[in-house]
């Protein structure tokens, strides 16, 4: 004997919307991990893009921001818009290195700026 399940139109819309969003998230995540880093490696789940900012000291960015009449956060946003497309990165496994230390200065979408032992570190997390 078959059992009937009744759902409303809004329940059906929610189910479809959640399913579509899940497929889109998985597709965006696949695209995220397929980008090769500066060593030619691609990522895998559990990894972040760790951008090579050279020897970037947070205090230097604070000084530059102050000289530009901007807050540190606004200066970092401006700077990131200018350099993000050309800044090399390496794939870094979460939980390794010292990226879990320090203080978060700014989050721009999935990109996180941290002050870690006086250095500015920039990591990009996978899309959610």
| N/C terminus separation | 41 Å
Supply the helix-strand structural class.
Answer: alpha+beta
**Low-pLDDT runs:** none
Order of helices and strands: HEHHEEEE
With strands numbered from the N-terminus, the spatial order across the biggest sheet is: 2-1-5-4-3
How does the overall form come out from the CA principal axes? Answer: elongated
Task: Please tally the β strands and state the result.
Answer: 5
- How big is the Rg? 20 Å
Structure description:
The chain has 3 helices and 5 strands; from the N terminus they run αβααββββ. With 128 residues, the protein is of the alpha+beta class.
TL;DR?
The protein has helices at residues 9-34, 58-67, 72-83; strands spanning 47-51, 89-93, 103-108, 111-116, 119-124. The chain is an alpha+beta fold.
Task: Please give the structural blueprint.
Layout: H1 9-34, E1 47-51, H2 58-67, H3 72-83, E2 89-93, E3 103-108, E4 111-116, E5 119-124
Antiparallel strand pairs: 1-2, 1-5, 3-4, 4-5
Features of the shown structure:
3 helices, alpha+beta, single chain, 128 residues
């Amino acid at each position: 004997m078959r059992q009937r399940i009744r759902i409303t139109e809004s329940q059906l819309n929610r189910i479809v919307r959640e399913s579509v969003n899940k497929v889109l998230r998985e597709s965006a995540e696949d695209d995220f991990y397929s980008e090769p880093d500066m060593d030619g490696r691609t990522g895998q789940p559990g990894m972040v893009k760790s951008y090579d900012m050279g020897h970037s000291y947070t205090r230097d960015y604070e000084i530059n921001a102050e000289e530009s009449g901007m807050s540190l956060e606004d200066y970092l946003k401006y700077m990131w818009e200018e350099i993000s497309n050309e800044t090399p990165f390496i794939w870094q496994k979460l939980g390794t290195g010292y990226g879990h230390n320090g203080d978060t200065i700014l989050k721009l979408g999935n990109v996180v700026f941290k002050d870690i032992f006086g250095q500015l570190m920039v990591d990009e997390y996978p899309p959610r």
